[in-house]
Amino acid sequence: MNVPTFNLDGQTALVTGAGRGIGKAIAIGLAQSGSDVVLVSRTMKEIEETAAYIYEQTGRKALALTADVTSREQLEETFREAISEMGSLDILVNNAGMNIRTPALEVTDEQWETIMQTNLKSAFFASQLAGQHMKERGTGKIINISSVGGAYGFADRRRIWRDQSCVNSYDQSARTGMGKVWNPCQFSRAMVFPNTFD
Q1: Cβ burial 133-157 (10 Å sphere, 16+ → b, else e)
Q2: Would you call 68 helix, strand, or coil by DSSP?
Q3: Bridge partners, residue 62, by sequence
Q4: pTM above the 0.70 mark?
């Protein structure tokens, strides 16, 4: 994987949904740029394999932690362990997410709750936990992975996009109107809008 030439030596990044796909690629890219990485996923086998690959290919420290990111209690434990093991946290990448290929008129309460908790609740509370740590340190970066579907929607897709729209609005408010609340110490935020992929 070719990454831009920037240096993250001495920094630590935590990536949710790091077991496969975009999250895995982000974790590897961060390590190639010099960052130690905390990989978070529900599936230990996937992140253990990615952690081993990162160490073998880059020599960077990679910590694999399992967590259900929809659980605030598990998120809190994950951040405690990550900061304890790595010493600090400089970068959070909220990548964990899912979609449900169901027409809007057929969505159930259970499907709605599952996707909102996975895509929106997890990003909010992970940002809160990271933000508390970054406030104490006076520096940090939070990156939210959304989707072009959340910005524009796709009429031909059998998916729920409203959750990603909520993520987009939350991120925008955190960077603008709520900036004084979220960001008293000037840690930075960014959002990435990947397209659909196989």
Answers
A1: bbeeeeebbbbbbbbebbeeeeeee
A2: coil
A3: 37
A4: yes
